[in-house]
TrEMBL record:
UniProt name for this protein: Carbonic anhydrase
Class of the enzyme per the UniProt entry, highest EC level: lyase
Keyword Membrane assigned: no
Family designation: Belongs to the alpha-carbonic anhydrase family.
GO molecular function list: carbonate dehydratase activity; zinc ion binding
UniProt keyword Metal-binding, yes or no: yes
InterPro entries named among the record's database cross-references: Alpha_CA_prokaryot-like (IPR041891), CA_dom (IPR001148), CA_dom_sf (IPR036398), Carbonic_anhydrase_a-class (IPR023561), Carbonic_anhydrase_a-class_CS (IPR018338)
EC number(s) per entry: 4.2.1.1
Length: 271
């Protein structure tokens, strides 16, 4: 996570069925359409251990915050039933724009979340390989973040961990053309996106809930997390295509909620 997309939709994508297949790369959908690439990353001096140094004002919480994400989800974290929140994502039967931001691959979409007495709107969903959150310390091959906000700038993330298993119709369709955005800044179209099965999955299983942070700069806190306790599944062939593009984008696991920031701790120790 997590960028709020200032997104100018290529409106044709939503109205022209032919576009999803035939017209890509024509005047209807110029190939040179690009998106801005993130200035932070996951390697060496732009990686998570150094996000604070990239901008000490903006990213201070990355190094000092005490409610940072991701964390290990265990019995100390509250759970609720998935039907205690209401999560909906609009259908995109002709596909939606799929962007490589360098730090993740992302699909800007509309949707709603009612949770904790707040009404949120969806901005986008994006992917991490491997997962950022861990359940009872165990990581998963993938995590999906649906990023919501309210007009007064409250943020919530609905998250799904993904394990290896059978093909998932939605994920296969999202990643249909992922090889076309192998270079940061590139965009393409997903296949058809229908979210009923995913909405049902969330509703039918327990969720972990806690107040944490964005897992990317500026590591803003007060983010309400709703994480399905039951992982989805993805087939290894699809996963391999995605991993080739994302490569690696998981922030390291943070300290327990309320505990000293791990970077602050090491700074103190080294003095
Ligand atoms: C650092 O972040 C601050 C606050 O968001 C911003 O005003 C400033 O331009 C940023 N500095 C750099 C060098 O990007
Ligand atoms: C989301 O909804 C807004 C407002 O109705 C619309 O302008 C925008 O094109 C929609 N975006 C997508 C990706 O559907
Ligand atoms: Zn994320």
């Amino acid at each position: 996570m997590t960028r709020f997309t200032q997104f100018t939709v290529c409106a044709l994508a939503l109205v022209a069925p032919a576009f999803a297949s035939c017209d890509y790369g024509t005047h209807l959908y110029p190939r040179e359409h690009t998106v801005p690439v993130s200035t932070f990353g996951y390697n060496d001096l732009i990686g998570p251990l150094n996000w604070y140094s990239l901008n000490k004002t903006a990213n201070e919480l990355c190094a000092t915050g005490q409610h940072q994400s991701p964390i290990v989800l265990d019995s100390s974290i509250a759970t609720a039933h998935g039907d205690s929140i209401s999560f909906t994502v609009e259908s995109y039967p002709f596909g939606a724009e799929f962007e490589n931001l360098g730090s993740t691959v992302e699909v800007p979409v509309n949707g709603t979340l009612k949770a904790g007495g707040k009404d949120y709107k969806l901005a986008q969903f994006h992917f991490h390989t491997p997962s950022e959150h861990r359940i009872d310390s165990e990581y998963h091959p993938m995590e999906i973040h649906f990023v919501f906000s309210t007009p007064d700038k409250s943020t919530a993330v609905v998250s799904f961990l993904v394990d290896f298993g059978v093909p998932n119709l939605l994920l296969s369709s999202v990643f249909q053309n992922v090889n076309e955005i192998a270079t940061p800044g590139e965009t393409t179209l997903t296949g058809p996106l229908l979210f009923a099965a995913l909405e049902n999955h969330l509703k039918s299983n327990a969720i972990f809930t806690y107040s944490g942070s964005l897992t990317t700069p500026p590591c803003t806190e007060g983010v309400d997390w709703y994480i399905s306790a039951q992982p989805l599944q993805i087939d290894t062939a699809t996963y391999g295509k995605v991993k080739d593009v994302i490569k690696f984008n998981a922030r390291y696991t943070q300290n327990k909620l309320g505990g000293v920031n791990l970077l602050q701790n090491i700074a103190n120790e080294l003095k």
